[in-house]
Structures are given as C-alpha cells and as structure tokens.
Specification:
Mean pLDDT: 82
Structural class: mainly alpha
Distance between the termini: 52 Å
Radius of gyration: 19 Å
Strand content: under 5%
Order of helices and strands: HHHHH
Number of helices: 5
Low-confidence stretches: 1-10
Largest sheet: none
Helix content: 55-70%
Length: 159
C-alpha cells in the first residue's frame, strides 16, 4: 500500500479543491441547522448548538487550510477525502437521515441508518454492525431519556 499523498507539493492544483467544497457545505449546512435550534428549550438546544458550532469552526478551519495551501504551494496536500462520489453519498445520507428522523422518529431512523451506511462503506460483518447499532442507539437512549430526561422525535408507530 502506498502511503504517499495523491497530490504532492510539486503538482499544480487543478480545479476546485474538494476540501474547499466540503468546508463550504459543512459551514452552510451546520449554519442552516443552527438557526433551527432557536426554538428549542435551553437544555435541549445545548448539545445541538455545541455540535453545530464545532462543525462550523471545523469547516472554517478546513476552508482556511485550503486557502493557505493554495497560497504556499510548498506543503504536500492532505486530502480529507479522495472519492467525490463517496462524499456525495455521505451528504445524501445525512439529508435522508434528517428527513427520516422527522418522518419515522429518531430511534427507528438511527437503527436503520447505521447498518445501511456501514454496508455502503463496505463493512460486511453483520454481527459487528448489529452490535454497533445496538450500542449506539441504546447509548443515545440512555443519555437522552434516562440521564437528561429529554424526549427525541416520537417514533412513527407510537403516534
């Protein structure tokens, strides 16, 4: 396996840097979702505001790194992702997941999304996927329902 980065410092960059596109999408998406937290109660909004603010900061850092890399052209490029189709798939998955949470409920959407995304990324160990799904979804339920006393979007079969 080759450990060398695909782009070296001596290669001229062509087109738009995919990291720049990713940074812009992350900042715009997180910023749009951050506006939706203004209607939430204080404790409910704490986690999404923190996570979305961190995403915006990381997106800005990604954009800044791309700009500095273009200016210097002396440092080897380190790509966040190498496959544009996979990146588009990730963005589409996130959009479908957000829509599914509102339509199906949080736990159902999460329980379905984890194995589907793992399969799409090539992970085929059924036991591992189901165990990760159970641990993640169960952990979220423990944190939000038992520890924080917060309700997440109601499941479609309980409405």
């Amino acid at each position: 396996m080759n450990s060398e980065p695909a782009n070296t410092a001596h290669e001229p960059s062509r087109g738009i840097d995919p990291d720049l596109i990713a940074g812009v999408i992350i900042v715009l998406g997180a910023g749009a979702l951050l506006t939706r937290t203004s209607d939430m109660p204080g404790m409910t909004a704490l986690l999404p505001v923190t996570m979305l603010s961190a995403l915006i900061l990381l997106g800005v850092l990604l954009i800044g790194r791309c700009v500095l890399r273009r200016r210097r052209q002396t440092v080897a490029a380190i790509k966040v992702f190498d496959n544009a189709k996979r990146f588009i798939g990730i963005v589409a998955s996130i959009a479908i997941y957000v829509a599914a949470v509102a339509l199906l409920g949080f736990y159902t959407s999460t329980a379905v999304m984890i194995p589907v995304v793992a399969w799409c990324f090539g992970y085929r160990n059924l036991k591992g996927v189901l165990l990760a799904d159970l641990i993640f979804t169960g952990g979220i339920a423990i944190i939000f329902v038992l520890l924080m006393g917060q309700e997440l979007p109601t499941e479609f079969f309980l409405r």
